[in-house]
Amino acid sequence: MVSDTLVYDPGADMIRAEGNVKITGQDMEAVSKRGEASVDGTFMRLSGDVDAFWEGGLRKIRCDEMESETKDDDRRILAKNVKRFEDAEMNVVLRADEVRGLLREGVFVTLEARGNVKADTTTSDGRPTTVTSKRADYNKPAGTLVFYGEAKAVQPGRTLTADRIIYRLESGRIEAEGNPRIVVEMESES
């Protein structure tokens, strides 16, 4: 950990940092305005313009606050006011009020996004797609990103709404369940 100011608290066994904070760990790198970390490296909390990177930048989070806790080979993160979450493997850029994730060996295994979720992706047929919802859950073993609560997918010329929208990452396919509706814009004849 490096910063403009570092303070060690022996009672808490924590290092507190202020100004131009940079933390480099085994599988991640992060920068922020403020931060604190346990001396053993198992816990950190960052705030103020947080940018975190995993796997050489393949996975990124830009947010206001982030906590990370490591146990064995698992890293759990909690990020608040997420302005951008990007995972090149998922082919999705996501924003949300809160994101919780589980990483194993630098790879997100699960991810939960809550509040004002907005995701941008490209489907298998090359259509840019924006999906919004109240909640979204990523499950790597299932290969899905599932949107819940007033889920809406918008593509050029059409809008799909449903209680639940399932985005299959490998195929780029979108499925709708629970009150699905699609509105297709018809081209006007000139």
* Low-pLDDT residue intervals, each spanning 5 or more residues: none
Number of domains: 1
Give the percentage of residues in beta strands.
over 45%
Q: Regarding CATH, which class?
A: Mainly Beta
Helix content: under 10%
Helix run count: 0
Mean pLDDT: 91
Distance between the amino and carboxyl termini: 64 Å
Shape: elongated
Provide the CATH topology.
lipopolysaccharide transport protein A fold
- Architecture, according to CATH? Sandwich
CA-based gyration radius: 19 Å
Question: Which structural class best describes the helix and strand composition?
Answer: mainly beta
Helix and strand run? EEEEEEEEEEEEE
For the sheet with most strands, the description reads:
13 strands, antiparallel
The CATH superfamily is: Lipopolysaccharide (LPS) transport protein A like domain
**Strand segment count:** 13
Written account of the structure:
This protein is mainly β and 190 residues long. The protein is built from no helices and 13 strands. The chain has strands at 5-9, 14-24, 28-38, 43-54, 59-71, 74-87, 92-104, 107-122, 128-139, 144-155, 158-168, 173-177, 181-184. Strands 1, 2, 3, 4, 5, 6, 7, 8, 9, 10, 11, 12 and 13 form a 13-stranded antiparallel sheet that branches. It is elongated and about 70 Å long. The termini are far apart.
